[in-house]
Design goal:
Blueprint lengths: L2 E4 L4 E5 L3 E7 L5 E8 L51 E4 L10 E9 L17 E9 L5 E10 L4 E10 L5 E13 L4 E9 L2 E9 L3 E7 L11 E6 L9 E6 L5 E7 L5 E7 L6 E3 L4 E12 L2 H16 L13 E3 L1 H4 L5 H14 L3 E4 L21 H4 L3 H10 L3 E6 L3 E2 L4 H5 L19 E2 L5 H15 L4 E6 L21 H19 L4 E4 L9 H4 L4 E3 L6 H11 L8 E6 L12 H8 L3 E5 L7 H23 L1 E4 L8 E7 L5 E8 L10 E2 L9 E4 L5 E3 H6 L2 E2 L9 E8 L2
Parallel strand pairs: 20-21, 20-29, 21-22, 22-25, 25-26, 26-27, 27-28, 28-29
Antiparallel strand pairs: 1-2, 2-3, 3-4, 5-10, 6-7, 7-8, 8-9, 9-19, 10-17, 10-18, 11-12, 11-14, 13-16, 14-15, 15-19, 16-17, 23-24, 30-31, 31-32, 32-37, 33-36, 34-35, 34-37
Helix pairs in contact: 7-8, 10-11
Bound molecules: alpha-D-galactopyranose.
């Protein structure tokens, strides 16, 4: 049993294969956190200490026991107003104007299977694979109830957490802050690893010491953002890629979020992960409830590699759904960097012709095919095919593409509206805009109010009318600005505080309907590249365009940061032209191919502009990718270098049956009389023998892992190498 309840001691123990999580209801009904980490036996309440501490108050119930204070005890769900002055998981504004909520244990229930969250993405599991515990707490005065939900996936070493807040009283309350996780550590010193960035340079690795005070990352942009990814690692000071304790927290949500890490006055650490509290004031009338999106937790005692492996497996097996969760993805040729807005139907058909010659599976017609859209200043919202531009109907275009043996995909940006569009002229109130104020532009476009069902319905109808015109097998769902001007025209003053949350649920509702109506269609997420690259989107879009930056050298760092939580099977990566359109850098086609093969592979260039020799090389690349596709999509991924520090980037995949190994290296620096780089493998069987498929040299796994293999010293910039090993005994 993954979940155990010790009735006499009121202790809950959640066990996974290698980890234990423990909490306890104490004599006063407070739910205290006891332990999270490597597997242990027994009760951990002996860890709690009680001392009289000045200015750390005592709850009324304990009377004159000055040694009991919620200001220092570890808690499962810290709430504002109880004498705990650290960061809170929940802040409730009561009908009487106060900000107080005193949650005490009421009941709990242990169930088979993993809980689901209506309207929100969440980890799923078969009934025998998971257990759920729901612990209900209540504030007896306001009658605010909180159900803490824990999902335990024992074999995966994963614990998920969410919370449902219910107003069981009669007055209207406002949820001012709500997190799904509050994780307290009474001992230890930690670093916070987060993944920051900007458009075209997402998910850069950053490791900082958690000092006294609060370190916070988050988003106020309406999306999870390029700037901070909603996933962090709490790492022991000495934790490395392969050693030491670390905890991963991955928020399964695509909008505003907040993660706070704090070292308190007693050198204890608290991490809170949940919804952003800015621009969030969620009103709850009597009887109403509110669900906080889920956070996935994982602990590794063997460093980041193990942590990443567990998150990759979880995303692949328990978050991604539908036909493409277990099947190969098409190799794409996207029209964006090939022709931007400057194309006709003929351009697309000729791209398809080139694709057919090269062995590419699908052509994607990117931005510019609809309404009046000669550039990015107009047309969003008018999802009618511009037949004048294409020179034919969409159905006819798709037939021509399909006749070449090539699949067809299309780009959409359903959440947006241009002021210069028919949609805006007839429904100006559908855009998010604050009455009496001028809106903030982003890429000269406004955001549709997706918190409104009528707006979503109208766009859904338009988009379906397009998708029904032919055999469309792929959609790229884009979102190209940060949200500002949060105001819904049909709402009341009180309801404006829920718009940021309702907007994201609106996006999920739209995506769910799209998936249901077109179950065989592959949807790739995108937000100016990786601006909404999060686990929430992965529930609906099994792959996401990783970055608008297609430069192979920048990409190794972007993909490195991405890999800490997200598997290669969700990471959109394409070979583009040189000089690269974002950086102006030139790298060889070989290097670009190797980097793009660490994701869902494709091309973002005009093949007609390539030489015959380059085209031949692309044919070989695609053959190679198809040979290795299963290892990349389903295998175990390992980082073999730190491309921020090392002179080379290296990574590898081991196939599910552990028979094939694919290792890739990109040299980031070259100097005169260059030193030799030795790359050490990981994840092999030490006593097995592996054969290099090119040189036929054989080595023991132990040798490859302990001593590594030398990379060639050759003149040339950004050279890349790939080796394939096969286990021979
Ligand atoms: C975003 C995407 C690009 C492309 C353009 C089209 O920037 O990330 O790949 O689709 O929009 O406008």
């Amino acid at each position: 049993m993954a979940i155990d309840y010790h009735q006499k001691k009121h202790i809950f123990t959640l066990q996974t294969a290698h980890t234990t999580y423990q909490m306890k209801v104490d004599a006063y009904g407070f739910l205290l956190h006891l332990y999270y980490g490597g597997s242990i036996n027994g009760d951990m309440d002996y860890l709690l200490t009680y001392y009289d501490r000045g200015f750390s108050g005592n709850p009324f119930d304990v009377r004159n026991d000055r040694t009991y204070s919620l200001d220092m005890l570890p808690q499962e769900y810290a709430v504002m107003g109880t004498g705990d002055y650290r960061n809170h998981a929940l802040v409730i504004h009561n009908a009487d104007g106060t900000d107080c909520c005193d949650l005490r244990y009421v009941r709990h229930e242990i169930r088979k299977g993993k809980y689901g969250l209506p309207g929100l993405p969440a980890v799923f599991a078969a009934e025998q694979e998971a257990q759920t515990i729901e612990i209900v707490l209540e504030d007896p005065v306001s009658r605010v109830q909180v159900s803490l939900l824990y999902g335990v996936l024992e074999a995966e070493d994963i614990i998920t957490r969410s919370a449902v807040i219910r107003n069981c009283g009669s007055g209207e309350i406002v949820v001012e802050k709500a997190a799904s996780v509050c994780l307290d550590f009474i001992t230890g010193e930690y670093d916070l690893i987060s993944f920051y960035g900007r458009h075209a340079m997402e998910r850069s690795f950053q490791r900082t010491r958690i000092a006294h005070g609060t370190q916070a990352i988050g988003s106020r942009r309406g999306t999870s953002s390029h700037q901070y990814n909603p996933a962090v690692i709490l790492a022991g000071r000495d934790a490395t890629e392969d050693t030491g304790s670390c905890y991963g927290l991955m928020f399964v949500y695509s909008g505003n979020f907040l993660c706070e890490a704090e070292r308190d006055q007693y050198d204890q650490t608290r991490v809170v992960m949940g919804l952003q509290s800015d621009q969030f004031h969620y009103p709850l009338g009597g009887g109403a409830s509110f669900t906080v999106p889920e956070t996935v937790l994982c602990y590794s005692g063997e460093g980041f590699a193990t942590l990443s492996g567990r998150f990759h497996r979880l995303i692949s097996d328990h978050l991604i759904r539908g036909k493409y969760s277990r099947s190969p993805r098409p190799v794409l040729l996207n029209s964006w960097e090939a022709s931007y807005f400057d194309f006709t139907g003929e351009t697309i058909v000729s791209l398809a012709g080139e694709a057919a010659k090269l062995g590419i599976d699908m052509v994607v017609m990117d931005d510019g095919w609809f309404g009046k859209r000669p550039d990015d200043n107009s047309g969003l919202g008018d999802w009618q095919v511009n037949e004048d531009k294409l020179g034919c109907s969409l159905g006819e275009l798709i037939r021509q593409v399909n006749a070449l043996g090539v699949k067809f995909g299309i780009w959409i940006e359903p959440e947006m509206i241009s002021e210069d569009s028919e949609l805006f002229r007839s429904h100006p109130d559908w855009a998010l805009c604050i009455p009496g104020r001028k809106p903030v532009y982003g890429r000269n476009q406004l955001v549709l109010d997706f918190s409104r069902k009528d707006v979503r319905d109208a766009v859904f109808e338009q988009i379906c009318a397009v998708l029904d015109q032919g055999n469309i097998e792929y959609v790229k769902w884009d979102m190209n600005r940060s949200i500002a001007d949060v105001y819904s025209m049909t709402g009341t003053a009180e309801s404006q505080g829920r718009v940021t949350y309702d907007y994201v649920l609106g996006v999920y509702d739209f995506l769910e309907r799209l998936n249901t109506r077109y179950p065989d269609m592959l949807i790739e997420g995108c937000s100016g590249g990786g601006g909404r690259f999060d686990a929430g989107m992965m529930y609906y879009t099994p792959q996401i365009w990783c970055s608008d930056n297609t430069d192979a050298i920048d990409r190794v760092r972007i993909q490195y940061g991405t890999s800490f939580f997200y598997p290669a099977s969700v990471t959109g990566a394409h070979v583009s032209a040189v000089p690269n359109h974002q950086t102006g850098r030139c790298t060889s086609l070989h290097t670009r191919g190797i980097v793009a093969m660490a994701g869902t592979f494709g091309y973002e260039l005009d093949p007609a502009k390539l030489t015959e020799a380059e085209q031949e090389e692309i044919r070989a690349q695609i053959r190679r990718y198809k040979e290795c596709e299963q290892i990349i999509r389903c295998g175990s991924y390992y980082r073999l270098s730190d491309p921020y520090r090392d002179a080379y980037a290296a990574w590898m995949f081991v196939s599910e049956d552990e028979m094939r190994v694919l290792m890739s290296v990109v040299m980031l620096e070259n100097h005169g009389n260059m030193t030799v780089t030795y790359v050490k493998y990981k994840g092999l069987r030490p006593d097995a023998v592996y054969e290099d498929q090119r040189t036929h040299c054989r080595h023991y796994g132990s040798a490859l892992m302990e001593a590594g293999i030398p990379m060639p010293v050759e003149p040339g910039e950004y050279l890349a190498y790939e080796t394939e090993l096969v286990r021979v005994q």
